[in-house]
Every structure is written in structure tokens, then in C-alpha cells.
Specification:
The structure holds 3 protein chains of 3 kinds.
Chain A lengths: L75 H12 L22 H7 L2 H4 L11 H18 L3 E3 L5 H18 L7 E5 L5 H8 L3 E5 L9 H7 L4 E7 L11 H10 L3 E5 L19 E3 L20 E3 L11 E5 L2 E5 L21 H37 L4 E2 L9 E4 L10 H10 L6 E2 L9 E3 L7 H19 L3 H6 L11 H6 L11
Chain B lengths: L1 E4 L4 E6 L2 E6 L1 H7 L2 E5 L6 E2 L4 E7 L3 E5 L4 E6 L1 H5 L3 H4 L8 E5 L2 H5 L4 H9 L2
Antiparallel strand pairs in B: 1-2, 2-3, 3-9, 4-6, 5-8, 6-7, 8-9
Chain C lengths: L7 H11 L30 H13 L22 H7 L2 H4 L11 H18 L3 E2 L6 H16 L3 E4 L5 H12 L4 E4 L18 E7 L11 H9 L3 E6 L11 H4 L3 E5 L15 E5 L12 E5 L5 E5 L6 H4 L12 H38 L5 E2 L7 E5 L4 H10 L6 E2 L13 E5 L6 H14 L1
Parallel strand pairs in C: 2-3, 2-4, 4-5, 5-6
Antiparallel strand pairs in C: 1-7, 6-7, 8-9, 10-11, 11-13, 12-13
Helix pairs in contact in C: 3-11, 5-11, 6-7, 11-13
The chains are: A alpha/beta, B alpha+beta, C alpha/beta.
Chain lengths: ~525, ~120, ~450
């Protein structure tokens, strides 16, 4: 035979090693420790190859130049490795179920990314002559048409940069409409206590005062509670529907009518629109203004905290006050109205953002919308609600559901099921991390104690939900069995264990500073 | 030395004609680790029930209200510098400010220790 | 439907578990008259990838893309080359499909790059501390004005005539509704305004820009001294952040708040958004800052880690008393900025700034030789203003027909304002070749 002397063991050794295994590098195989980019400075290296300046002549008008910036130097491979390693320290929808209530963490289709990167969208300047960007204006117009038709609303403002910015847009339109009616004394805004923090913050930002409406025992807002607060100084109500408890407000029509009868407007926070898209038109609920988080319902990626996009649909009463700029379709194609003098009869309240809105997000949202179509979007709402109710039904015997079902797109639990265990909602959530799940939203909404808000979204399969439910049941059992230490020590398998937020806030270190030599 | 309490969990201790104000042990426990304190400057006029100081933990922010009308004599620089004093010694070194009381009747009308204790027992 | 994993079998089984016979039963709280019985009429049904690509590609093809023509448009958004690795890294799902890092143990990646971003912004602007981004430069400027008013509790705001008109409008709109007294100055195309004379004891802040809308470069050291002497704050705006690779940073001039549009580094033109607002200030004002902040701390084992911090300023805790209502910001655009700036490094950024200036100087020299064209600026970075013998908007239109995107007519921002209709803003960055510049010169010679 021809001997191959390079043979080697191909079955694992039956060896056990006592004691904790600590590596020399601090790395744990796929889990790499990574320094700050500033600490990786490699003086003399450069990550780009630029051409030499064509002239050394300067025309700086006498202003001074700077000595240096203090940036680190790295070649491309080191930069790529650094950020790739950082990425590996994140949970994401691509890698795990992310049931973060109120955030709608659904699958982000990559077709949308590909479309947004077409040079015809990604490489055009906002101040090009309009005749050279007709396709871009047409795309904005098409997306606007879809959003108006889906909501049943006659008008839309496309420029707001995110949900909270959309709220600002809606409230400023209300402000302008009230001023135009000669009712500038209307400055009180009704906000249910279950509202997102952005609602009262936005109202205050607009110079309104906030008046809180208490929630009913069943997690809803009652028409009586609203009526008790109405008066001729009320500007509007800001109501999230479905609300932050994951419930549809059954008296919404009566509430809208009562607010309108009292001379106020109805601002709807559309953060939870995913539950009803294609099945219910907000116009049929009496809404005057509603923002749509394209990064929630229409699946533009959350990107670790943005960018988002928050177009606002408007009723006829508010439409004239929509901000600049906006697209109109004239006989010579599409034009962009950038100045009040070109706005015809409209009286735009001003401008909210530089240029024309989040175009990159518009392309992604339209790709998503066209992919689903009217039939698919209806199915989105149906499956989102079905998934949430399935989780609720499968967990309500071991976890404490805050309200009777059915719920809409998210299921709300509270911490009663942890009573006596010593385990807090935070501990419970951290234990989920070691099991490979991103936690649900905790301690929000404020109307129940120790809230745990689960939003599975429609893009999770039944198999995934069944594994999730089994994990939640297991953890619940473990908590009730008294294994408090397990929860308090969680998470243990992440690159970092629980972080000291007290130290971070008491002695803030908000940037790297070069250590003294 | 007389001590009184408010239902907003401030304590106020009278020593001669100057009163010291802080937040109660119950309040600091509810807040958690205090990370930031802002105290009023000397000379500021305070109105009963209105903002006088700010106290923050990592996930909560609260205003400390003036328990009575009066004028600030001194803000506690030590607690602004080392907010953890509010947790470790809320009714001692963790005081917020000293004030001259305008109307003693307002002071007398506040809760005494027994009344405050039974108030928090009912929460 | 390719994005929906539930099968009909799954749906039936799940309905049985829930104990209802149809999904419609789950919508029982919706008022009867608002429940739609089928898909909304007048809209198309679902499409495959190929059909969607065809539809959108057709729209994209109707636009003139910057890379395919001689391109000189700036005015607050700049065409730069972004290295290929930036976008490849952005597309990593762990960045792209992650949420705001509220759970620090599973988002150290996002938190660490935000900490790096904050440091880079502080270094670039010459300031102490920066936040984790705003929507864009314009909204950041409005937030800076509100912050200044919170700090000195004053109400009057002076806006330089060199400030980008969109920034001015956003300030007028969002701060105006708060009842602030906003004094916007006339367009300062001649670089002649003296703002120090306008500052008084009621002035909350003064907002200036360098390079200005018209490309002028200014040193604000004396202005900062004059403002501080009267208790007013100075907000310096930078819309072309590459200029900070060459010019004295606002922090060294004494600025209190610096706001930049960060698009130029790492981010494409994208027809105006999404972009990324950079926001930096002094340590003493950090608690009055809007937006998220990432801070360094340690974990239970004492290892360095990062968390969002000083959150009590924000809407989710402070509600109506928050410093701002901002929630979602520009996280991924901030990442693009951070990666591109890391690739550039100290040497690359300096050189990029030099190349930009050199190209602009070369173009200015060439345009000054064209009959009837007058350069307005004494100094500039990569953008300047020229006065034409004809209406700039008409000239730009005619050049666009010839396949040249020549710049921004000032009348696009200030329509009907006398004396401005002949002014054209022209930008030149590293993407412009000498051939591009010659094409512009020839084009101008033809249409003037």
C-alpha cells in the first residue's frame, strides 16, 4: 500500500478539563473582544487612496487652517474587520426573533435595499432641476397615493423624518388650523396615560399643555372619560389605535365624534398601524391626522435606531396646512412646491426638514408595498394579529395576561405571575437573552405594573412561535420553582454581562480621550 | 428641632429660623440609585408646591417641590457633587437645600412623623 | 406571499388554539362599519421580485444620476465618493435589522460604534461632547436653538443671512410655534453682515454658518466673544463637513453648539434623505442636549462596555418635560459616517479636504476666465458663488439640456428676491475631473 503519513484523529477525544476555561486573548472563539477604533491606530496606514490635489494654490480668504483632527489611521482590512466584529455583538431580526412590543420588528426584505441603491434613486441630488428627477417625484407621488388610499385620507405630508417628527407635523397642522379659525386659545391636548412618551413630548414641543386621560380597568379609553375633559380650550386628542396595550379602542368612533363636536381634532398615533393595515381605514374612524412609521408597518430597516420616516395623512380640514415641500402633478409632469407663494390656496405651516423627506425610505417602503399589494397587506394585518393572539392564548395560563383577549398585534402581560419569586420583569427579560431571544418591551405601557409587551409580527413562522412559547413556559416554570439566582445572574453568555448604568449616569464618559503619553 | 413631611415625600426640619429640606428614605428607595441632583441657588424665592430641585435615577426623573413658601439660604453642593448621598443618607448628609420659611403656619400644617408613616403604609 | 411564513394549515391550527373560527373574530372591537370585507379597491395585488424590480427600475431610469454627468450641485448636500466597504458593512443584518440599543448586552456592536461616532464628531468640531445623531442638519439646528433658549432662558434668535435657507425655515417653523422671536437676516451673498451689533441682553443665541450658503469662510472668534459678553450663545452650522478636514473647527472659535450635516461622509445624495445631523456642545451643557447619548461603563465582571445614558432628558422618561421629542434618529447613517471617517483617517481626511479645495480653486480660475462670469467670493472651500450676466435658473436649465448639472441658482431658495436671480452656487468635489470642469466652461460659453 501507499502509506499516507498525514492521517489524523477524526473522532473527538473523550477528555474533560476541570475548572473555568479562560483564554489568553480574552476572545471566546467566534466571540471576539474588540478595542475602540482609536485604540487600533496604526500611524502611517491609510484606508483610502486619493489622488494628489491638482493644485497647491489656495483661496481661503485669509481664514486659518487647522493643525490636525486626532483621528486614528488604519488600512481597509483593519477597518472592515473592526466593524464586522462589532456587528457580531448585536441581536437583529436577521438572527433572532425580536418581539419588542410597539416596535414592529418584522423581516426587512433585501429587495428593498437593492432598489434604494439603484443609482437613479441613490445618486440624485435634491436640488437638481426638477426635469432631471421626474422619476423620483413620480415615486413619491405613487407612495403618497398608496398611503392615502390605504388610510382613506385625502392628503399627506411626506417630509417628516420619523414617527415623533410626524407627530410634530400633525400637531403643527392642527395649530395652524386653529389659528386660521381664530381659535388660538385652544391649547390643551388630551393624551391617555398609556401613550408613547413622544406624544406628550411633541405636544409640549408645539407649545400645547398636556392633560392626561386615565385608562379604564379594561385598558381602553372610554368616551365618558374623554367627554369629562373636553372644553373649548381643547385643541385635539392624541390617541394611539390600536393602543399601547395592544387593544383596539372600541369606542373610537364615539370619541372622535365627541372631540369633533367640541371643536377639537383627532390625532391618531399610527405606531401600531401594522395591526389594521389593509383591513381598517383610519378615515373611517374619524381621524384628522395620523403618522405612519415607514420603519414599522412598511418594513424599512430600523438600522440600530434609524433612519426612519414618518409621513402624515391628513383630513380635508387639515390638508391646507401641510408643510413644504410637496409634489404636484401638473400638465408638464411632476413639480415640487418649495415656497408658500407657489402653494395656490394652501397655507403651508412652514418646513420641517431640509430638502424633501426620506427618499431612501420611500423607495424601500414602495418596494415593500408593491410586493404585498392590497391583498398581501391585508394578510399582513391578519397574520400579525393571529400571531399575537396565538402567543397570548399559549401563555396566558402561566403568565398573567393584563387584559382579556383578543388582542391586536401585540400581547400584554404584567408581573403578577412573578409575584413572590423575587424575579423582576428585567431579570426575566435578561434570562431570555441567554436562551437566544431579544426581550420583549418591558415596563411600558405604564398603565400596568411590570409590563411585558410581546409583538411577534407577521413574519414569524408557527415553528418559531412554538419554540418561543416553549422557552417562555420553561422560564416561567424556572422562576416559579425559585431559581432566583439564575435570573439575577442573567445574561451570562453574552459578550458583556449586565452593565452598570448607575456608574454611566453618575460619571458620564461620552467619548474616548487620548490617554496621556 | 421639629420635623415635618409632605405627601410628595419631602422632609423639612426646622432649626432656629432655618429649615432643611430633603427627600425621604421611602422616596429614595422608590427612585433607585440616584445619579443626578440639581439644587437651587441661595436667594431663590420658592413657592409651596412648585419646583425647587431635581432628582434623577437612571430611569426616573422627579422634581422636588418646595414644602412651604420661603427663600433659599443654601443649596447642598455636596449632594450635587455626590448624588449617591441621597441613597446612603437621605435624611442626613443627603439634604437638598436650606430655606427661610415665610409663613410658619404652612410648616405647622404639614404631616408629622406619625402621620407620614401611616400615609406611606397606605400606599 | 414570500414574506409571510404562515401556511393555511398553520392558520387553522392557531385559530383552534385561540378558540375562534376566523381571524375576523379577532377584530371584533373594530366598529362594524369600519371593517373592510376584502382588499382595498383600486390598488394592485402582490407582485414577485422581478415585477417590482421592473417597476422601480423604470422610475429610476427617468432620473439623471449625478455620476453620469459633469456635476457641480451642492447647496447643503454634496456628491462625494463613498468607499465600497462602507455600504457592504451597512448591509450586515446585525447592523441593518437591529433596533435602538435599549438592551445593552445584545447591542454592544451598535453602542460601541455610537461611542466612536460621538468621539469622531467631537474631534471634528473641536467640541467636548456629541450626541448619537439627529435627523439632519436642519432639524439639528432647530434643536440647538431650543437648547440655547433652555440654557439662558431667553427668547430672541438671530439667524445669519449666510445660513442655509432650509435651516432657516425649519428654525422659523419649529421654534416659531414655541413663540420665539426669530430675526432672520437678509441673504448675505456679499459676506458683509456684522451680527455682533444685533446682540443684546435678550438674545438667546445667534446662528451662523461656515462655509456659508454662498461659500464664504468666516472666523467667528470675535463674534463668540461679543455674544458671550452679553450672555448669548453661538451656534455654528457646517453643511459641508469635509471642510473640517482643512479649516479651523468651530470649537476653537468659541462656539457653544455646533451642528453639521454629516451626509458628505459615508452617505449618498439619496435625493435629500436620509441624512445625519451631527450635534456637539460643551460639557457644561450636556444635560440640556437633545437626542440619545452613549456612555462608557463596566459590566458585572468589570469589563468595559457601553450603554445609552442620561436618558432622563428624553421623551420616554421625561414625557412633556423632555429636552426634545426625538426618538428614532439616524443610526445607520451615523454608522456610514463612522466607517467612512475611519477609512479616511487623519491623513485621508486632510487629503480629501485638500483635493476638494484644489478642485474648487481650479474651477473658479477657469470660470473667472469666462466672459461675463464674476466670482463673488474672496475665500471658499469647495463651493462658491458666481454672478452671471443672465438669470441663473435659465442658465442651469439650458445646461441641464446639454447634460451638465451646473449648480444651484440662488433663486431656487429665494425666488423673486431682487438682486439674487443672477447668482449661481457652484460646488466642486473630488469627483470632478478636469474634463468635467472644461465641459462646464464650454457649456457656459455657449449659453451666456
Amino acid at each position: 500500500m501507499a502509506m499516507n503519513n498525514q492521517g489524523r484523529d477524526s473522532t473527538p477525544h473523550a477528555v474533560t478539563v476541570a475548572g473555568e476555561f479562560v483564554t489568553f486573548t480574552g476572545n471566546k472563539a467566534l466571540q471576539q473582544e474588540e478595542a475602540l477604533i482609536f485604540e487600533l491606530d496604526n500611524p502611517g496606514a491609510v484606508g483610502v487612496d486619493l489622488e494628489a490635489p491638482v493644485t497647491t494654490k489656495t483661496r481661503l480668504g485669509g481664514v486659518k487652517t487647522r493643525a490636525g483632527v486626532g483621528l486614528p489611521s488604519l488600512a481597509e482590512p483593519d477597518v472592515v474587520r473592526h466593524y464586522t466584529r462589532l456587528s457580531q455583538k448585536n441581536f437583529a431580526i436577521d438572527t433572532t426573533m425580536y418581539p419588542l412590543g410597539s416596535c414592529t420588528m418584522k423581516h426587512n426584505p433585501r429587495l428593498n435595499e437593492k432598489m434604494a441603491r439603484l443609482p437613479g434613486f441613490g445618486d440624485i441630488h435634491p436640488l437638481q432641476p426638477v426635469e432631471t428627477v421626474q422619476g423620483a417625484l413620480e415615486l413619491i407621488d405613487q407612495l403618497a397615493h398608496w398611503l392615502k388610499t390605504l388610510t382613506g385620507m385625502p392628503a399627506i405630508a411626506m417630509s417628516p423624518g420619523a414617527g415623533a417628527h410626524g407627530e410634530l407635523c400633525g400637531l403643527m397642522a392642527i395649530h395652524a388650523a386653529l389659528d386660521a379659525r381664530g381659535e388660538s386659545h385652544r391649547r390643551r391636548v388630551l393624551v391617555p396615560e398609556s401613550a408613547h412618551g413622544t406624544n406628550p413630548a411633541t405636544a409640549a414641543f408645539c407649545g400645547f399643555t398636556v392633560d392626561t386621560i386615565p385608562a379604564e380597568e379594561n385598558g381602553r379609553v372610554s368616551v365618558e372619560a374623554v367627554k369629562a375633559k373636553l372644553g373649548d380650550d381643547v385643541a385635539c386628542i392624541m390617541l394611539t389605535n390600536p393602543n399601547t396595550c395592544g387593544l383596539f379602542e372600541p369606542q373610537i368612533r364615539e370619541i372622535a365624534d365627541a372631540v369633533h363636536a367640541a371643536g377639537g381634532y383627532f390625532y391618531c398615533d399610527g405606531a401600531n398601524y401594522n395591526a389594521i393595515v389593509g383591513r381598517v381605514r383610519p378615515a373611517d374612524l374619524g381621524v384628522d391626522a395620523m403618522h405612519i412609521n415607514l420603519h414599522k408597518t412598511f418594513s424599512t430597516p430600523h438600522g440600530g435606531g434609524g433612519p426612519g420616516s414618518g409621513p402624515v395623512v391628513l383630513s380635508d380640514a387639515l390638508a391646507p396646512y401641510a408643510p413644504l415641500p410637496f409634489v404636484v402633478h401638473g400638465k408638464d409632469g411632476f413639480t415640487l412646491v418649495e415656497h408658500a407663494k407657489d402653494a395656490g390656496k394652501a397655507q403651508p405651516f412652514g418646513r420641517l426638514k431640509g430638502f424633501h423627506g426620506q427618499m431612501g425610505m420611500f423607495v424601500r417602503a414602495l418596494a415593500y408595498i408593491l410586493s404585498h399589494g392590497a391583498d398581501g397587506l391585508r394578510q399582513v394585518a391578519s397574520d400579525a394579529v393571529l400571531n399575537a393572539n396565538y402567543v397570548l392564548a399559549s401563555l396566558k395560563d402561566v403568565m398573567s395576561a393584563s387584559f382579556d383577549g383578543p388582542c391586536m398585534h401585540e400581547a400584554l402581560f404584567d408581573d403578577r405571575f412573578l409575584k413572590g419569586t423575587g424575579v423582576t420583569p428585567l431579570d426575566f427579560a435578561k434570562a431570555m437573552i441567554d436562551e437566544g431571544y431579544h426581550p420583549m418591551t418591558m415596563y411600558f405601557p405604564l398603565v400596568v405594573h411590570g409590563a411585558l409587551l410581546i409583538e411577534p409580527t407577521e413574519t414569524e413562522s408557527k415553528q418559531t412561535l412554538d419554540r418561543f412559547i416553549a422557552t417562555m413556559r420553561h422560564l416561567t416554570e424556572k422562576a416559579k420553582a425559585g431559581d432566583l439566582a439564575h435570573f439575577q445572574a442573567s445574561p451570562r453568555l453574552t459578550p458583556r454581562k449586565r452593565l452598570d448604568e448607575t456608574q454611566a449616569a453618575r460619571k458620564p464618559v461620552l467619548r474616548w480621550v487620548k490617554p496621556a503619553a | 428641632m421639629t420635623i415635618r413631611f409632605t405627601q410628595d415625600h419631602e422632609w423639612i426640619k426646622l432649626d432656629g429660623d432655618v429649615a432643611t429640606v430633603g427627600i425621604t428614605d421611602y422616596a429614595q428607595q422608590a427612585l433607585g440609585d440616584v445619579v443626578f441632583v440639581e439644587v437651587p441657588e441661595a436667594g431663590r424665592e420658592l413657592t409651596k408646591g412648585k419646583d425647587a430641585a431635581v432628582v434623577e435615577s437612571v430611569k426616573a426623573a422627579s422634581e422636588v417641590y418646595a414644602p412651604v413658601d420661603g427663600t433659599v439660604v443654601e443649596g447642598n453642593a455636596a449632594v450635587a457633587d455626590e448624588p449617591s448621598l441621597v441613597n446612603t443618607d437621605p435624611e442626613g448628609a443627603g439634604w437638598f437645600f436650606k430655606m427661610k420659611i415665610k409663613d410658619m403656619a404652612q410648616f405647622e400644617a404639614l404631616l408629622d412623623e406619625a402621620a407620614y408613616k401611616s400615609f406611606i403604609a397606605g400606599l | 406571499m414570500r414574506y409571510l411564513p404562515l401556511t393555511e394549515t398553520d392558520r387553522s391550527a392557531m385559530l383552534a388554539t385561540i378558540g375562534v373560527d376566523s381571524v375576523d373574530a379577532l377584530f371584533r372591537d373594530v366598529p362594524e362599519q369600519a371593517r373592510l370585507k376584502g382588499p382595498i379597491a383600486g390598488l394592485s395585488d402582490h407582485m414577485g421580485e422581478l415585477a417590482v424590480e421592473r417597476h422601480l427600475s423604470r422610475l429610476a431610469a427617468k432620473n439623471t444620476t449625478a455620476s453620469t454627468v459633469p456635476f457641480f450641485i451642492g447647496g447643503g448636500a454634496y456628491k462625494h465618493h463613498v468607499p465600497a466597504s462602507v455600504d457592504q458593512l451597512l448591509l450586515r443584518g446585525e447592523f441593518l435589522t437591529s433596533y435602538t440599543p435599549y438592551q445593552p448586552e445584545v447591542t454592544q456592536g451598535t453602542l460601541q460604534y455610537l461611542f466612536e461616532f460621538q468621539t469622531q464628531v467631537a474631534l471634528l468640531t473641536g467640541m467636548d461632547v456629541a450626541n448619537a445623531s439627529m435627523y439632519d442638519g436642519a432639524t439639528g439646528t432647530a434643536e440647538a436653538v431650543l437648547m440655547a433658549a433652555r440654557i439662558n432662558k431667553r427668547n430672541k434668535v438671530i439667524l445669519s443671512g449666510g445660513l442655509h435657507p432650509h435651516y432657516r425655515s425649519v428654525v422659523e417653523t419649529t421654534c416659531g410655534v414655541m413663540g420665539m422671536d426669530i430675526r432672520a437676516q437678509a441673504p448675505d451673498w456679499k459676506n458683509a453682515e456684522d451680527l455682533s451689533a444685533l446682540i443684546d441682553g435678550e438674545t438667546a443665541c445667534i446662528v451662523v454658518q461656515t462655509p456659508s450658503l454662498f461659500g464664504h469662510l468666516r472666523d467667528f472668534t470675535a463674534l463668540c466673544e461679543a455674544a458671550h459678553a452679553k450672555g448669548a450663545l453661538v451656534i455654528v452650522v457646517v453643511t459641508e463637513v469635509v471642510s473640517l478636514g482643512l479649516l479651523t473647527p468651530p470649537g476653537e472659535m468659541g462656539a457653544d453648539i455646533v451642528v453639521c450635516e454629516g451626509q458628505s461622509i459615508g452617505n449618498g445624495l439619496n435625493f435629500g434623505g436620509p441624512y445625519v445631523g451631527l450635534f456637539a456642545t460643551r460639557d457644561k451643557y450636556v444635560r440640556q442636549m437633545p437626542g440619545r447619548l452613549c456612555g462608557q461603563t463596566v459590566d458585572a465582571d468589570g469589563k468595559r462596555g457601553f450603554v445609552l445614558t442620561l436618558s432622563t432628558r428624553e421623551q420616554h422618561i421625561r414625557r412633556e418635560k423632555a429636552t426634545s421629542n426625538i426618538c428614532t434618529n439616524s443610526g445607520l447613517c451615523a454608522l456610514a459616517f463612522t466607517i467612512h471617517l475611519s477609512l479616511l483617517g487623519e491623513q485621508g481626511l486632510t487629503q480629501l479636504a485638500q483635493v476638494n479645495h484644489a478642485n474648487a480653486v481650479t474651477l473658479a480660475d477657469k470660470l473667472e476666465a469666462v466672459k461675463g462670469v464674476k466670482l463673488v467670493n474672496d475665500g471658499f472651500f469647495n463651493e462658491f458663488t458666481v454672478k452671471l450676466p443672465k438669470k441663473a435658473a435659465k442658465v442651469v436649465s439650458k445646461l441641464a439640456e446639454r447634460g451638465i448639472l451646473a449648480g444651484v441658482p440662488v433663486s431656487r431658495f429665494y425666488p423673486d428676491m431682487e438682486g439674487l436671480e443672477d447668482l449661481l452656487l457652484v460646488a466642486s468635489t473630488e469627483v470632478n475631473s478636469l474634463e468635467d470642469m472644461d465641459a462646464l466652461v464650454r457649456g457656459l460659453e455657449e449659453v451666456l
